[in-house]
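quick q for whoever's on today - can somebody do inverse folding on this one?? i tried earlier but teh output was garbage lol. tokens:
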């Protein structure tokens, strides 16, 4: 297993309410053993319809999704998830929860996904994933961390992975090394989406454009979200705006913290907001994403390179090289945010970001959809559409390219598999795990034959 980032016990992020992003060469949030889930708040969503966490319903039947979700839970159970006694949401609804569901269902522009959710917490997730990694090593898996894959080549005779390792130097810099394998599984997460496209282009592997998700990270005082937090932990709400674009809430973190993560972009970096929550350490705020989905089809053959990355870079340039923070109050007043204005609000930001003007760079129809959605959310959580709401931009999910695969992750090259968020088909822990299990089962059958 080759991993670009550091081992799980060496991964550390310095971003806090007082410390801005240090722009590390390799982001410990998005890269490293254990994946981005090791630095997320690790919500496990068990949705048999396949709607929550990606587009699994296009690859598997509902019965198959249910089967793999059960296997996913059993793996987490094997490595100790039940010892944390995490609360399970979505099994039964209180009267208050049902009232919220009814309000959403009565709104013609809103929907809600109902599924079981278990919140593990960032600190607990690292324990679980650490145990998984130890298990792999104990059973003969070679894990090579801090090792950047530069190229993957496949032909009728071999499948090779070319890489440079942190310890492999010469007088002229990194030494490029390669190894050959019968089968290659590519599971590079969201941050590897650009690399996935390069692999596909270089090896004539089929893929198609999917949607792009662009939006903001919203942060509000906990009391604003109390009813939702108490009854759902994470409420998956979908909205259709006046432009016809679909938006959704994503990654809700009661008592959580906003984070800033970086992604490679040529010889530079781009920065996006995200959020997480600990099981035992809580802030006074709740954060969640509002993401607006766009499908470009033939209008934009390469949405990531031609649209998403340049957009993030533009927003970053207005944020002094990172994420922009703006209050909803200032957006409504048609003015940029300043530190002194943010300081006068009741809410205290949990991440250090540049106080500025999101509206100068965010696409008009995307921003309008976000603001319309916030107005509707205020009907179920009064105060969201108020002065003490903060927006961090941009927050984007990189899954625009979908590799053409079967339910086992096998691509048009039968020796190369794509699984997890990097495949373009999923964006969640349980869906990524389900894909991994399906892939492993198929490979074992191939070996047995």
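ok took a stab at it. sequence:
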């Amino acid at each position: 297993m080759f991993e670009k980032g550091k081992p799980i016990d060496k991964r550390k992020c310095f971003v806090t309410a007082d410390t801005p992003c240090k722009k590390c060469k390799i982001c410990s949030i998005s890269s490293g053993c254990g994946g981005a889930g090791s630095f997320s708040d690790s919500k496990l969503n068990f949705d048999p319809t396949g709607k929550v966490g990606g587009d699994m319903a296009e690859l598997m039947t509902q019965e198959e999704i249910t089967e793999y979700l059960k296997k996913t839970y059993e793996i987490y159970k094997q490595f100790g998830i039940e010892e944390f006694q995490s609360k399970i949401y979505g099994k039964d609804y209180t009267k208050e929860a049902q009232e919220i569901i009814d309000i959403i269902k009565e709104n013609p522009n809103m929907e809600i996904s109902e599924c079981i959710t278990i919140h593990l917490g960032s600190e607990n997730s690292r324990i679980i994933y650490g145990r998984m990694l130890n298990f792999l090593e104990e059973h003969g898996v070679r894990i090579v961390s801090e090792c950047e894959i530069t190229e993957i080549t496949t032909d009728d005779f071999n499948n090779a992975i070319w890489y440079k390792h942190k310890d492999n130097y010469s007088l002229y810099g990194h030494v490029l090394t390669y190894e050959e394998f019968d089968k290659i599984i590519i599971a590079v997460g969201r941050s590897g989406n650009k690399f996935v496209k390069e692999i596909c282009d270089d090896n004539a592997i089929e893929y198609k454009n999917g949607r792009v998700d662009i939006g903001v990270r919203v942060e509000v005082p906990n009391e604003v979200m109390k009813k939702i937090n108490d009854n759902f932990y994470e409420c998956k709400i979908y909205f259709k705006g006046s432009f016809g674009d679909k938006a959704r809430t994503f990654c809700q973190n009661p008592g959580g913290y906003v984070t800033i993560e970086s992604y490679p972009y040529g010889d530079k970096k781009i920065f996006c907001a995200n959020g997480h929550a600990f099981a035992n350490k809580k802030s006074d705020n709740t954060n969640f994403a509002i993401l607006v989905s766009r499908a470009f089809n033939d209008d934009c053959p390469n949405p990531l390179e031609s649209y998403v990355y340049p957009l993030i870079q533009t927003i970053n340039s207005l944020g002094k090289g990172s994420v922009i923070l703006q209050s909803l109050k200032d957006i409504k007043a048609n003015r940029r945010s300043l530190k002194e204005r943010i300081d006068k609000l009741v809410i205290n930001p949990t991440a250090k970001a540049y106080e500025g003007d999101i509206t100068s760079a965010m696409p008009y129809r995307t921003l309008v959809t976000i603001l319309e959605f916030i107005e509707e959310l205020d009907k179920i959580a009064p105060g969201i559409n108020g002065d003490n709401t903060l927006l961090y931009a941009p927050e984007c999910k990189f899954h625009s390219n979908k590799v053409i695969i079967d339910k086992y992750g096998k691509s048009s090259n039968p020796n190369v598999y794509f699984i997890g968020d990097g495949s373009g088909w999923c964006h969640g822990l349980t869906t990524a795990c389900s894909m991994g299990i399906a892939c492993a089962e198929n490979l074992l059958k191939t070996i047995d034959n």
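fwiw Residues 252 and 288 are 4 Å apart (CA to CA). also The chain has ten helices and 22 strands. so keep that in mind when u check it
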